[in-house]
Amino acid sequence: MENSADGIKLIDRDGTILNANRAAWETLGYSREELLGLTIADLDPAWSRERFQAFWDTQTTLRPVFVQTHHRHREGPLVPMEVTAIPCDLDDQRFVFGISRDISQRLAWEEALKQSEERFRGIVHNSSAGYFRLGTDGCYKDVNEAWLSMHGYRDRQEVLGMHFSCTQNPAALEDARRIVDAVLRDGESRNGEFSRLLKDQSVGYHQYTLVPVTFEDSVVALEGFLIDI
């Protein structure tokens, strides 16, 4: 308990903190003496005494409950927390172990990633190169305006969900399948010159780059760019 990086508190039915480990008080800027005796309502503005009591009254089993909330730091700021509340019986009395983790850094990373993805999408969708994303099922999940123009389409909704084979020159369809299968299988990028089938059934030519999108060592999608030649 003392060596845990997560804050651990022993809480009674009134929401009073009876015991805690070092991470619990240091994360919120308290000393041990200052933290013990406070209630959950003192730390968490979203959990009044009444709300905690209502929660307590519903805990008829010992199943853990997971909550994302905020705890107030001793200096005032609210700290985002991921909390696991575990009911337990000790000496015929019901208590709750509250295990809390500061998720400030994780949320900051997620927000930075979200903003980065939004910037990337903005760049992609305003690019003069045709951009597309395929799912592992071979169907289009996203295309930009340049891709639509290169293929003679006006609306993305015409294309999303369509299999990539529908935009391939029939004479080169098997080569296209082999390229897509190889990138999905090997997780390695491919590039070169290729042909495409437009909506009006005419054939165009372009340079392409096709790259795998990976998550936890697995290919989960393919992204590519086309430049008209």
Please give the number of β-strands. Answer: 10
Order of helices and strands, N to C? Answer: EEHHHHEEEHEEHHEEE
Q: Characterize the largest beta sheet: strand count, sense, and whether it forms a barrel.
A: 5 strands, antiparallel
Q: Would you tell me the structural class of the helices and strands?
A: alpha+beta
The low-confidence parts are none
DSSP helix fraction:
25-40%
Q: Classify the beta-strand content into a percent band.
A: 35-45%
Oligomerization status of the protein chains: single chain
The N- and C-terminal alpha carbons lie at a distance of 65 Å
Blueprint (SSEs and pairs):
Layout: E1 7-11, E2 17-20, H1 22-27, H2 32-35, H3 40-43, H4 49-58, E3 65-72, E4 78-90, E5 93-102, H5 104-125, E6 130-135, E7 140-143, H6 145-151, H7 173-186, E8 190-197, E9 203-215, E10 218-228
Antiparallel strand pairs: 1-2, 1-5, 3-4, 4-5, 6-7, 6-10, 8-9, 9-10
Which features does this protein show?
single chain, 229 residues, alpha+beta, five-stranded antiparallel sheet, 10 strands, 29% helix, elongated
Description:
The chain has a five-stranded antiparallel sheet. It has a five-stranded antiparallel sheet with strand order 7-6-10-9-8. The protein is α+β, with helices and mostly antiparallel strands. The chain is elongated. The chain is 29% helix and 36% strand. The model has no long low-confidence stretch (mean pLDDT 92). It contains seven helices and ten strands.
